[in-house]
Amino acid sequence: MERKQSTPQLFPNRFADAVGPAGDGPARDHCRCVGYSVATRPEVVSFHGDRQDTEAAGWQHLLALIDEAAADGRPVFRPFVELSAAERRQIVTLPPTIAKLTAVTHLVLYGTNLVRLPPEIGAMTSLEKFDPYTSHRLHWYPYELTRCTKLADSRVSTRVLYGNVKFRPPFPRLRPVTVTGEADLGTLDPAEWGADAVRTCSVCDGPVRAELRQVWISRCVGTDVLPLLVNACSAACVAALPEPYPGYVPAPHTGGPKIVQPFDSD
Ligand SMILES: [Zn+2]
Ligand SMILES: [Zn+2]
Questions:
Q1: Which residue, 165, 161, 162, 133, is CA-closest to 5?
Q2: pTM metric for this prediction
C-alpha cells in the first residue's frame, strides 16, 4: 500500500538501478492535478492530454527494448533504466507491443513521465509484480490490468490517484454513452477520453462499435486499490462489472464534481 514518498532522495539503494542515468536535463514533468490534501484538492480534474510523439528517439528506443525483452523472455523488465533522461521524458504512454511481454513477471515503471497505460497491459498475463512507484502523473489505470490474474504485489504512489482514500480527489468526468457518429473512436482526444483510441471492450474484449460506455471503478490490484477506467461496449458489460472495493464509491460511476465519495477521516 502507500509508502512515504515525501523524500525521494532518501530511497534505499535497491531502487537506484530502477531509474537510469541522469545528466541530460529533466527526466519528467511535474503536475499537481489532484492536489495533495483535502484543502488543496481541486473540485474538477481532467485527464492529461499529452499525445505520444512516436517519432521521438525515446519512443523508438522503448520499442526496441520491448522487442528485445519479448525475444529473450526475461522475467524482469525495467526499460526506463536503459533510457537517457531526455528519452524518459518523451514517453507518456507505453506502446501496444507490451502485449508481447507474456514472460515478464516484474514490470518496473519507477519514476517515469507516463500519464497513462494502454489496455494491452492486460495481455501481460505472467505479471506478478507491478511497480510504477513515483510515476506521479499516473492518476488512474486501465481496467484491463485486472486481467493480470497472477498480479499479487504492487507498489503505487497512491496519493496521486483519483479518489484516493487519503484525501479523495475527484475523478475526471466521463460521457456515460457515446453512440456511433458522435466520435471517431479510432482517434480520440486523450484530454477528454483518457486514451487516444478505444477499440476493444475492457470487460468482454469484443469490439467497441455501436456505443461506448465509460465508467470508473475502484478495485484492488496487487496490493493497492486503484481507480480503473472501463471502456465498455454495452450496458450489459457495465452491469457485469464486479463490486467496487469497500470504502470507495459503491457502484461504477462517471466521475465529475457531483460524485459523492465515502467520507474518510484519514
Ligand atoms: Zn497530473
Ligand atoms: Zn463488452
A1: 133
A2: 0.90
